[in-house]
Each structure stands twice: as structure tokens, then as C-alpha cells.
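Components:
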Amino acid sequence: SKSSATDKACSRDYRKYGCVMTDEQFEMLRRQISVYSTICNQLVEMHKALMTQQAFIPNMALVPGQQLPLDPVLVARSNGRQRWTPSQSQLQILESVFETSVGTPSKQKIKEITMELGKHGPISETNVYNWFQNRKARAKRKQQHSMKDGEHCEMEMEEGTEMFRKDKRAAFDMLQK
Amino acid sequence: SKSSATDKACSRDYRKYGCVMTDEQFEMLRRQISVYSTICNQLVEMHKALMTQQAFIPNMALVPGQQLPLDPVLVARSNGRQRWTPSQSQLQILESVFETSVGTPSKQKIKEITMELGKHGPISETNVYNWFQNRKARAKRKQQHSMKDGEHCEMEMEEGTEMFRKDKRAAFDMLQK
DNA sequence: ACCTTATGAATGAATG
DNA sequence: CATTCATTCATAAGGT
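Structure:
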């Protein structure tokens, strides 16, 4: 129900319009903007902290005029670049291959799988490779986890990442105002 | 000649053909980066001004010799850091050495580099060695991957991932001063 | 709307 | 050196 694969191919005449990028290049730009955005937020935060503590130079307040007119992430998204997400059929195939195979697929195998899955949606060899890596790692971890006889010690939570996310979200929220 | 209806905002098939943007889209991205960059610089300037004029020590953050708790990533890591993470300056040096050298550095060379990088943060020879190993391996893999047929564009932007971190850390380093 | 979870991707380290 | 593993970062999807 997500993307309608009905989108017509982009006119190949784009060369004549000048601006052509590889998706890697585009992704790089996107991330760069995102990084800048984060930096700005944090700078603003810091500045605020200083100001409230000092009540100092109010007229120098926050970068007059420039109110971060564009949301980089959203803009980037509107252009369609996101991380790969396996389609239903792709996932099915991946799972079945995973079950029947022993270790990580060889390079050749990866190529084949990628080929096959390509019929069901956009995919690259790297995607496949990563998928198997993650699948294996997470299966293993789950294994270990369930080996802890149901008794106590559910204190496994890692709060480091959580904290980070919250901070980041806060920064972004601040920015949007 | 060609229909201008098709070239408008068409980037749906980027996966297959590489990322194609309209001039407008490209301009927008460029402008955004520029804006953010400018804002960052302004904020940093402002911060510097405040600091030099006041030379105060906020009880919440700015302990001399310590990093501002601004970067959630760094903060999260400092809590229970497991593995080594190169600082911005270290990364910069590593990259430059990598560019100018041919193969894996000799033991002696590794020692020297470690010595040098030690000035910029905690590091061991093993870290350096691993870094070079990984860097080379991944550069190679990337090389292969980029040998995808068709749809190449001429502009060569390079070295994807490391760069973001570099930018980000550079900006933060700026702040620390 | 916010928060959590699942998961794709990046990368330091280990292994052969 | 080539592969693989382990951990973590970042994001898409789903729940409340």
C-alpha cells in the first residue's frame, strides 16, 4: 500500500538540464544538511544556556532574521531518498534463504539473491549483505537472551541510546519553533 | 522539443537511474547548506564573543578542559564507552596519511602515527592498525560497488561516510574553543 | 502528537 | 588481507 510503482520513469533527458547526481552524492548532501541542522540546534541551545545564566547582551540574541527557513530532513524526504526497506515478497525470500542456509552467503550467492530480489523491488548487494549480517546477529542475541531462565534480571535495558534520542528530539523540536 | 511536463520534480526512479534532480531541487539543497553553514559560523562567533568578554564558568557545563555536553553522541559514548572512536582531529590526520601512503603503514610508521595522534586523544597502536585495515578494505569494496554500469555522472564527490563525522566534529571543535 | 520498537547501516575490532 | 562479528547510530513503522 506504500509506494505506487506506477511512477513513470524519469525522462532521460535530464542530462540536458544540467543537474545530475548519483544517489550516493544525493545521500551525502542530505546527511550533510542534517548534520548542519543538528549543530545549529545545539549551538542555539548552548547560547540560550549562556544567556539565561548571564542575562547578557540581549540585543545580540539569536541570529536575527535567519530562522532556518527549510527543514532539511523533510525536504530530503520529499525528494524520496530514504533507507532501503524490503518489500513483503523480498522479506519472505530473504527469510527462507536465511533458514535454509548455514552461514553468511558467499559473494556469488549474494549477487544471485540480489538479482532475484531485484524483480520485487529496488535493492542492492549491500542491502542483502547487511540484511544477513543483521539477521544473524539479532538471532544470536535473541538466543542468548532467552537463555536467561525466566527468573529475574530484566534490567538489561541500555539507557544510553535512549537518552541520546530524547536529546536529539528535543533539539529538533526547539528548532521547529 | 521534449515535454517539460516529465522533467518536473521527477526523482522517483532514482534507484534505478541514479539520483536525478531538477535544477530547482539542487539549488534548494545548495542554498540550505549554505544557510546552515552561515548560521553556524554566526553562532560560534557570538559564543566566542561572550566567552572572552565574560570569562565566566557556568556551573552547569563549561568546566575547563572538558567538553561541552552538547553532542549527544559524544555524551552517550563518554558514559560507558567501549570501543575507541577517533576524534575529529585524529580522523583528519588519519585520512591525510591514508591518502598519501601506498599500503599499510609499517610497524614503525604505526608507532609514529600513534604518537602523533596521542596528542589529540587516547589511542593505541592497535587502533591505528585496525583503522588502516578497515579503511583500505572498505575503500576497496566501495570501489567495486561503484562500478555499476550506466548512468554515471561526471561530478565526483568522494569519500562518503567519514566526511560527515568530520564536519560534525569540526564544528564541535570550533565550539570547544 | 509523542514515544517505542524494529531494523538498515556504519564501523571498530577480531579471526582465518 | 579477506571475512566476520559486535556494538552502536539512525530511521521507518507502529503503538499509545
